[in-house]
């Protein structure tokens, strides 16, 4: 596909994204705002709780979890900006669109990469508990985070380098409705990107199978408290697998949308496009805080502590349960005398 034909397809796609029904456009955009902003606020609140609790910052798994909250919050904000830009038919210059697409693509990769690191952290915690403290030290965890962010930016930067090899300088001053397709102007480039994604998916599946299988073996052999810890690690791994599954569908959805667009059924394309946006861009980002943050006892306690404005503070002095008042103090007079003394 040459550049001119790619521009024609891109223009058709941009017009299809808006559709011909202004009422539907208003409703879908408003509904997206109602759904997106609660998740953004939840992520930001969880991130604030993490930053204010030193006991959470001391553990590697919470540090990794905070990175997903940070990346997902920015990704949701930028995605919502893109949705509003389509709603108002905003055209931006290429020199602004390309860096924005690079950042969004990198952020989309950060969460699954972090989740994969969290799977390995659980594997070490369950299968090598004595070495866990030495392997996931704060310094090494920070190094892992930096490597993950660097790897997440490699693929979009490579796409930019390929784009620079066959476009003119005037390309950066064109106005466009921003989407990642502006970096993919050749068929072979899109095919190469798809193959790289498949290789990464195979590598991820192998790591997940190895980690989950090892944890299952430990759960079968363990007994008592060790068996309970292994079973909990096994359930956590299943949640991570579910998260990665939704992230995988998010990466596959553009290929499905492209095939539907070739059918020239604009209404069906709009429905599928909007469903993909809600299911794979929004809800897949909401799974992490909802099923991991709220499920973890320590993190959940910290959330409730700040959500209740620190009203659930437990006093260090023991209190007599209400049901034992009549046993300890048979009548109110004795209770009153005791309080006076």
Kindly describe this structure.
It contains 13 helices and two strands; from the N terminus they run H-H-H-H-E-H-H-H-E-H-H-H-H-H-H. It has helices spanning 3-18, 22-52, 54-57, 60-87, 94-127, 129-135, 138-164, 187-221, 225-262, 266-293, 297-307, 325-328, 332-340; strands at 92-93, 175-176. It has a two-stranded antiparallel ribbon with strand order 1-2. The longest helix has 38 residues, at 225-262. Residues 1-17 and 313-341 have low confidence and may be disordered.
Give the secondary structure arrangement, pairings included.
Layout: H1 3-18, H2 22-52, H3 54-57, H4 60-87, E1 92-93, H5 94-127, H6 129-135, H7 138-164, E2 175-176, H8 187-221, H9 225-262, H10 266-293, H11 297-307, H12 325-328, H13 332-340
Helix pairs in contact: 2-4, 2-10, 2-11, 4-5, 4-10, 5-6, 5-7, 5-8, 5-9, 8-9, 9-10
In short:
By secondary structure, this protein is mainly alpha-helical. The chain has helices at residues 3-18, 22-52, 54-57, 60-87, 94-127, 129-135, 138-164, 187-221, 225-262, 266-293, 297-307, 325-328, 332-340; strands at residues 92-93, 175-176. The protein is built from 13 helices and 2 strands.
N-to-C span: 91 Å
**Element order: H for helix, E for strand:** HHHHEHHHEHHHHHH
User: How many extended strands?
Assistant: 2
Q: What strand order characterises the main sheet?
A: 1-2
The Cα radius of gyration reads 26 Å
Mean pLDDT: 76
Query: Spans with pLDDT under 50 lasting ≥5 residues?
Result: 1-17, 313-341
Helix content: over 70%
Number of discrete helical segments: 13
Strand content: under 5%
Major sheet, described briefly?
2 strands, antiparallel
Q: Structural class of the secondary elements? A: mainly alpha
Q: How does the overall form come out from the CA principal axes? A: globular
């Amino acid at each position: 596909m040459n550049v001119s034909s790619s521009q024609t397809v891109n223009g058709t796609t941009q017009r299809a994204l808006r559709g011909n029904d202004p009422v539907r456009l208003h409703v879908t955009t408003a509904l997206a705002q109602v759904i997106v902003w609660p998740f953004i606020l939840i992520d930001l609140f969880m991130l604030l709780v993490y930053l204010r609790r030193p006991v959470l910052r001391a553990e590697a798994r919470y540090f990794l979890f905070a990175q997903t909250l940070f990346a997902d919050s920015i990704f949701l904000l930028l995605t919502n900006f893109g949705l509003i830009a389509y709603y108002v038919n905003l055209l931006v210059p290429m020199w602004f669109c390309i860096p924005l697409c690079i950042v969004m693509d990198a952020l989309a990769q950060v969460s699954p990469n972090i989740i994969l690191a969290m799977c390995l952290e659980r594997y070490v915690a369950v299968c090598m508990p004595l070495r866990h403290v030495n392997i996931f030290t704060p310094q090494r965890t920070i190094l892992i985070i930096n490597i993950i962010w660097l790897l997440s930016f490699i693929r979009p930067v490579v796409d930019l380098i390929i784009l620079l090899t066959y476009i003119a300088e005037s390309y950066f001053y064109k106005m466009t409705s921003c989407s990642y397709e502006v970096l993919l102007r050749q068929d072979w480039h899109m095919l190469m990107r798809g193959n790289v994604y498949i290789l990464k998916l195979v590598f991820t599946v192998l790591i997940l199978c190895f980690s989950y299988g090892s944890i299952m073996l430990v759960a079968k052999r363990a007994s008592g408290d060790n068996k309970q810890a292994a079973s909990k690690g096994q359930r956590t791994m299943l949640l991570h697998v579910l998260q990665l599954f939704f992230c995988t569908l998010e990466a596959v959805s553009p290929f499905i949308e492209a095939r539907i667009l070739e059918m020239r059924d604009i209404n069906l394309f709009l429905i599928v496009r909007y469903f993909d946006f809600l299911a794979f861009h929004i809800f897949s980002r909401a799974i992490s805080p909802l099923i991991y943050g709220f499920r973890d006892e320590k993190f959940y306690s910290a959330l409730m502590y700040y959500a209740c404005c620190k009203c659930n503070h437990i006093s260090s002095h023991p209190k007599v349960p209400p049901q034992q008042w009549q046993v300890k103090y048979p009548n109110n007079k004795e209770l009153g005398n005791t309080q006076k003394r």
